[in-house]
Design goal:
- This protein is an alpha+beta fold.
- It has one domain.
- It contains 2 helices and 3 strands, in the order αβββα.
- It has a 3-stranded antiparallel β-sheet with strand order 1-2-3, covered by helices on one side.
- Helix 1 crosses helix 2.
- The longest helix is centred in the C-terminal third of the chain and has 20 residues.
- The model has no long low-confidence stretch (mean pLDDT 89).
């Protein structure tokens, strides 16, 4: 089994949180668009992971 990076898990969480069906298979991230599975490029994985981290930091700083 391939090890999945933290960035890939963060990107997966970002897609799912934004109602975009996503899965990880054989160490690659896929999103579903109009019943097609599209493999997400590594630079896009990094970008979405960064968005996820920023989103979570903003949430943590928000008073309850």
């Amino acid at each position: 089994m391939l090890e999945v990076s933290k960035d890939m898990l963060d990107a997966l969480a970002w897609f799912r949180d934004n109602d975009i069906p996503a899965t990880i298979d054989d160490g690659s991230l896929f999103i579903e668009v109009n019943s097609y599975e599209i493999m997400v490029d590594s630079s896009e994985v990094s970008y979405r992971a960064e968005l996820w981290k920023e989103y979570n930091n903003e949430e943590a700083d928000t008073p309850s």
